[in-house]
Specification:
Layout lengths: L4 H6 L4 E5 L17 H6 L4 E5 L1 H4 L10 E3 L8 E4 L4 E2 L1 H13 L6 E4 L11 E4 L7 E5 L2 H9 L4 E4 L6 H23 L2 H18 L1 H12 L6 H15 L6 H13 L7 H15 L6 H13 L31
The chain binds iron/sulfur cluster.
Length: 331
């Protein structure tokens, strides 16, 4: 018997590539191990593939530090070990290309911040291999390849995911892309229709225009082959999830959801929900507060249009944690 969409997607864990020094092996240049609260938490929920690009290109532990160098506007960014004057750019690029091309199934990446290999942004780029201060910032060489080859996936660094909004966005994207990978394997149009239906409110909270476009792509089945529909859907899904949802869009979806059952509420209940949404508007409570208030009513009234919407639980509740570094709110 064919399993339902929900059974199939719930049965599969996301696959996440993680920097090995984040709790798996003491492979940092100084021989130390680092840690990430999110990585620890995710150990029970995802399948991790660990990578240490520097060790895997043959560097030892411990090792002399390496740095990114860009001498002038017309030269490429190089990866250099100042103490030995070795340039490691080609080794790193070749390794990255080979490693990433072998990943047949992957849904996201959590990489070590600020590393000249793994850092996704804010990595110091120096003008010379010798002493001197960094003039600009950019991405580590391995991380740059990750972002180039997997533009639709959830890619973050362990520093940025300490921020509540960024972490929530990362987990949402991770689970949505995992579900898309699962249905893409069988490539049935009815699965894509169900995927779209289940994620409708969630995508609406991200980007209403893209949601319309995605609906249009689904409707073009018949003119386009199933494979073309999937390809176009994936490209536009990526664009939809590109930026964190604005709080005004979240409020819009919360209010719209309330509309499904507001006629069954008492005046005081309605008032309470609207007050809670307003507290979120004023940043007095996190998004999860009005979300759970709406969700409890969806359950109470068994609202069939909303009960399966991923908007109310885009990833397992156990992964929710309202701690916030207060940093890195910008995308
Ligand atoms: S940051 Fe990347 S290259 Fe550096 S030790 Fe960690 S996994 Fe290895």
């Amino acid at each position: 018997m064919k399993l339902s969409y929900k059974q199939r997607t719930d049965n599969v864990k996301p696959i996440v590539v993680v920097s090995r020094c984040l709790g798996f092996e003491a492979c940092r240049y100084n021989g130390q191990l680092d840690s990430s609260h999110l990585v620890e938490k995710l150990k029970d929920f995802v399948d991790f593939i660990t990578v240490c690009p520097e060790v895997q290109i043959g560097l030892e532990v411990p090792r002399e530090a390496i740095r990114l160098v860009k001498e002038n506007e017309s030269t490429a960014i190089k990866l250099i070990q100042p103490s030995s004057k070795r340039e490691l750019s080609k080794e790193m690029t070749d390794f990255g290309e080979a490693f990433l091309s072998k990943l047949s199934k992957v849904d996201g990446f959590i990489l070590k911040s600020k590393s000249p290999s793994c850092g996704i942004k804010e990595v110091k780029i120096y003008k010379t291999a010798e002493k001197g201060s960094a003039s600009v910032k950019g991405s580590g060489l391995f991380a740059a390849l990750v972002m180039e080859k997997f533009p639709s996936l959830a890619v973050e660094d362990e520093g940025r995911v300490k921020n509540y909004n960024i972490r929530q966005h990362f987990l949402t994207k991770l689970y949505i892309m995992k579900n898309f990978r699962v249905i893409k394997e069988s490539m049935l149009i009815e699965d894509l229709v169900e995927f779209h239906g289940t994620n409708k409110l969630l995508i609406m909270s991200y980007n209403q225009k893209q949601l319309k476009l995605l609906g249009g792509i689904l409707g073009s089945h018949g003119k386009l082959s199933v494979q073309q529909v999937y390809e176009q859907y994936q490209i536009n899904l990526m664009l939809a999830l590109n930026k964190l949802p604005r709080y005004t869009s979240n409020i819009n979806v919360l209010t719209k959801s309330m509309g499904y059952f507001s006629d069954k509420l008492t005046h005081r209940e309605k008032e309470f929900i609207l007050e809670t949404i307003d507290k979120y508007r004023q940043s007095k409570v996190p998004f999860s507060v009005p979300l759970y208030v709406i969700k409890s009513n969806v359950i109470r009234f068994e609202e069939k249009n909303l009960i399966n919407q991923s908007f109310f639980e885009p990833y397992p509740l156990e992964l929710d944690n309202v701690t916030d570094s207060g940093k890195g709110l910008d995308k």
